[in-house]
Specification:
The longest helix is centred in the first third of the chain and has 20 residues, at about 1-20. With about 625 residues, this protein is an alpha+beta fold.
Length: about 625
């Protein structure tokens, strides 16, 4: 009789939760689950859930629901098993090399090879929501369990975690992970020890390159015993600890694989210590990872639970937007990553499938432009100012992006505390970031570019990257045509080659206002950086400011220097700013444990590490017909 009562309670609870999931408005549905915003109802539900845990016939019936300690939301309790399938419109990293030494840490190994540190997934989301790049205060130990820094800031001692094993795959065969593995990788990247003759890797290789790592003044990296690594610097560096723990280029690769094959570019040779193992790659089509049954890690939110939860993780490449949305509607996809500008299809999805949760993430402007400052007409600041003033970004944010974009001007930096918000800019700077085509035309006249007989002042070309919106570039081109600048817009597969050649005299797509580590974002514009310096800037003043920020000895000093540096770039119009548009992540309601965090939130460029901490509510999925 008592068991029947419990079953009736559970049945009613399931019906109630199903009703909540079917609420038409996603915000109202969110409130129903959020203890912080709907405490009375949530507390009642929680009491029912906990009250349903009873002792019967010597057995404990476990609660079906738990409270997420980082958000206060009531969610289905963690469970193991199943496959989590995520969709992506591009397949670049499916066939990319997995070896950071060759400039790409985003291949299939990004869910396999771990680093010394990781973001603390168990942190309160009101403290840090994982929508921007990690800060040092959020990092916790991973392959390095703990560390110490000498009083003079020159010696870093890392205590390597015991009990970690490489995947049970040749040639590693499940052997124990040790301090020597860490030393091998740092020596290889920095050109130390056995790699002295080869020298450090080229910091300019890759989209961001190993700039942050190579810029550190390393003196030595040694293993003093099986579980201790000591790193010595020639001079103190405020950014050293963050880079050592979390830079994309210090993923710890298997030494035996490098020794046997020379590198780890072939995905078949990928071996790591992480929660997943690569089991299949179909170039430009899919990646499949399988659960590592011997993984050492536990869930930071629920420390009794060993990771990962799902048995398999799949990334499907679906270039066609219609096909992508059809896969979501039919339940063939559990998660869709990075939908930056497909606003129409997302709003359509919200109408037909309101149960799918939409998570916008305003991380950067992907559609800004970097003029080649070294050649006319872009070497004239008034030309750059005019191009900015000709753009009606506020109107475009509403008319084209339907209110999903943020037109507030930014400079290079987007991490709070390291830049000056637009409202606080001096008026003499603000004026050049407001839509004013008449003033823009006057500036072009003063710069010596009057309209010709055909109304054209000069011609310009725009080299649009794959990460940017071709539509917005064409909209910008139309605005520039109105002030007499004849613009040719092209989205070419030769984008990268054109940037690197420095012979292409137009504008390139560039990232602005990004939530990357501020010093990294600024360092991209140092004179000695290759691809990341989209405008080819060669300004000694900026180089000196970047070097000063690198040499800062306190966070307060570095924040002050970064603000000055960012304002310098803003005043000189190094970039033509475009609105910030969201990366949009879409999750089925049966994907539990996800609260809108960036898929690479836990560690830079590790796009799939978060998925080791998510689970599938199989009962809910089945109840919804999938």
């Amino acid at each position: 009789m008592f068991r029947g009562l419990v079953d009736n309670v559970l049945s009613g609870m399931k019906a109630g939760f199903k009703a909540i999931l079917n609420l038409e408005h996603p915000i109202e549905r969110e409130k129903m689950f959020n203890l912080k915003s709907s405490s009375k109802l949530s507390a009642t539900l929680l009491a029912l859930i906990l009250g349903a845990s009873v002792f019967m016939a010597g057995q404990v019936w476990a609660a079906k629901y738990v409270t997420d300690p980082t958000t206060g939301k009531v969610v289905s309790a963690p469970q193991y098993g199943g496959t989590l399938t995520a969709g992506h419109t591009t397949g670049g990293s499916t066939g990319a090399p997995n070896d950071p030494y060759f400039g790409n840490p985003w291949g299939p190994g990004a869910a396999v090879n771990e680093r010394l540190g990781i973001g603390n997934w168990g942190i309160d989301r009101d403290v840090f929501d994982f929508s921007t790049t990690l800060t040092l205060s959020v990092l916790t130990g991973r392959l390095a369990e703990s560390w110490d820094i000498s009083p003079d800031g020159l010696t870093y001692t890392f205590n390597i975690r015991k009990g970690v094993r490489w995947h049970n795959k040749a040639p590693m065969n499940g052997r124990e992970f040790t301090a020597d593995d860490v030393v091998f990788n740092f020596h290889r990247m920095l050109g130390l020890g056995d790699f002295t003759e080869a020298g450090e890797r080229d910091a300019s290789v890759g989209s961001a390159g190993a700039v942050a790592l190579i810029s550190l003044p390393f003196e030595s990296v040694t293993a003093t015993d099986k579980w201790t690594v000591v790193m010595k610097l020639k001079e103190p560096s405020l950014t050293a600890l963050f880079v050592i723990l979390n830079d994309p280029y210090v993923a710890i690769l298997p030494p035996e694989v490098i020794e046997q094959h020379g590198d780890m570019q072939d995905w078949r040779n990928v071996v790591g210590t992480g929660p997943f193992m690569v089991t299949d790659v179909v170039e430009e089509s899919s990646i499949t990872w399988t659960k590592n049954p011997d993984y050492w890690g536990y869930d930071e939110k629920y420390p009794q639970n060993r990771l990962p939860y799902v048995d398999q993780l799949r990334r499907l490449v679906i270039p066609d937007e219609g096909t992508m949305m059809a896969a979501l509607r039919s339940g063939k996809l559990d998660f869709r990553m990075y939908a930056p500008s497909a606003i129409d299809s997302i709003e359509s999805l919200q109408r037909t499938n309101p149960e799918i949760v939409v998570h916008p993430q305003y991380f950067r402007s992907s559609d800004s432009f970097a003029p080649n400052h070294r050649v006319p007409p872009f070497d004239d600041i008034n030309v750059r100012r005019a191009l900015q003033m000709a753009l009606d970004n506020e109107n475009v944010a509403v008319s084209y992006w339907k209110g999903w974009a943020d037109p507030t001007p930014h400079g290079l930096v987007g991490l709070p505390g390291y830049y000056i918000p637009f409202d606080e800019w001096p008026e003499e700077v603000k004026q050049y970031y407001r839509y004013d085509p008449e003033a823009a035309e006057k500036l072009l006249d003063e710069a010596g570019y009057p309209r010709g007989a055909d109304g054209t002042r000069f011609k310009a070309a725009v080299n649009v990257a794959g990460f940017a919106s071709l539509d917005y570039a064409e909209i910008a081109g139309a605005y520039w045509t109105e002030i007499g600048v004849d613009v040719e817009v092209e989205q070419s597969p030769e984008y990268r080659e054109r940037v690197l050649s420095r012979t292409w005299e137009g504008m390139h797509s560039a990232v602005a206002g990004a939530g990357y580590p501020p010093l990294l974002m600024a360092s991209w514009y140092h004179s000695d950086v290759g691809y990341s310096n989209k405008g080819g800037s060669q300004w000694p003043e900026m180089d000196a400011m970047i070097d000063a920020a690198r040499a800062a000895t306190t966070n307060e000093e570095q924040q002050r220097l970064m603000k000055e540096l960012d304002m310098y770039a803003i005043e000189n119009h190094w970039l033509i700013f475009a609105p910030k548009t969201p990366f949009i992540h879409l999750a089925q309601p049966w994907v539990i444990g996800y609260s809108g965090e960036s898929p690479n939130a836990l560690s830079q460029s590790e796009t799939y590490t978060v998925f080791a901490r998510l689970w599938i509510d199989s009962e809910l999925k089945e109840a919804m017909g999938h």
